[in-house]
Amino acid sequence: MPKYHFEIVDGFRLEDPVGLDCSDDTQARDVAKNIAHQIAVDIAGDSDRKVVVIDDNGDEVYKTKIKP
Question: The pTM is what?
Fold first, then answer.
């Protein structure tokens, strides 16, 4: 199963050194949406935060904005 890294971008990049095994890009996208939702619930405020999904090859495969 390919490994995907879920990085948080907020002017700075918080890298995900461990990653998570996902069956494909679609599952990784769903995980990213879940992460973005959890962060939005836990952290108030309006910002330009994003969850960026990076695959095993280092390619960005998905990006979603964290919306409060």
Answer: 0.80
